[in-house]
Amino acid sequence: MDLNACTRVWRRGKLEEENFPAARISEYLAEPDTVVWLDLCHPDDGGLDLISEEFGLDPLAVEDALSHHERPKLDRYDGHLFFNAYAVHLSEESGELATHEISAFITDRALVTVRGDEEFDLDALRRQWDSSSDLAEHGVAYLLHGLIDLIVDGHFAAVQALDGAIDDLEERLFGDEVPTRETQHRSFRLRKSLTLLRRVVLPMREVVNTLLRRDLHVVPEPMTPYFQDVYDHVLRATEWTESLRDVVTSLQETRIALQGNHLNQVMKKLTGWAAVIAVPTAVTGFYGQNVPFPGYDEQWGFVVSLAILIVTAVALYTIFKKRDWL
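The line above is the sequence of Magnesium transporter CorA; the predicted structure tokens follow.
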């Protein structure tokens, strides 16, 4: 195999070598007590065909690894498992959620990860493994736990960041007399990000729960508590995501209600001022008739009409103001 890939090999629970040529994987797998990790970033068909021959991978699993936008899942094939998930990152500035698809082939002595892009943090994955190197004796289960734990921690961090962004949006929503266009745009982006996050977080509960099944023989007994801890994190992230969905829905309804209340206030003020102006208009229109009336062609008649205009306008303004119509 001539592939540009990241590699590591453990022997009897100890890291022996890393970043060696992928062509040497066969040599290590031929030796006892070794576990191999191989990472491929956006491989082509030919590269995965070589891997498929080396590890005996099912063509359907290989096709899923090459496809994009597969749902998070864990499929069982003869001789290996196929795992698909998404690492996520929320931009606090824009409120947009970025997803990075990662697939993995799980065999008895090897973990082959396939990334859709270069955004997934491999250094963080290495640090995750190095921080729990005492578990390396458990082989592929140790590697798989580090990978899933890193992905789930990213989900949890994104949910937490979304929660903070939604709290900030709530303060802005109630702080503004009228929701601004920027507030409305941010609300839309956060709702879109939350919907996308739900699509990648919710299926992980089924994935991790399936891994804990004893008939798969993937997770040895000593590693069960660690996978159970990951499962608890998945449940918390799922429940938190569902609660945020209700909060966002309530905020949307509140925003619409605030806009309606503001429109009512505007219409009430306009109606009040229209009434204030309507009475003087009626009086001047009445006195503008070309017929004699009391005080016609007299100065006191003009004074009386002017007094009526002022008194009625002030009276209407006082009444409407007292009723908070103005």
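Note on the example: The two ends are 80 Å apart (CA to CA). Helices lie at 25-30, 45-55, 59-66, 122-131, 140-175, 181-211, 224-287, 299-322.
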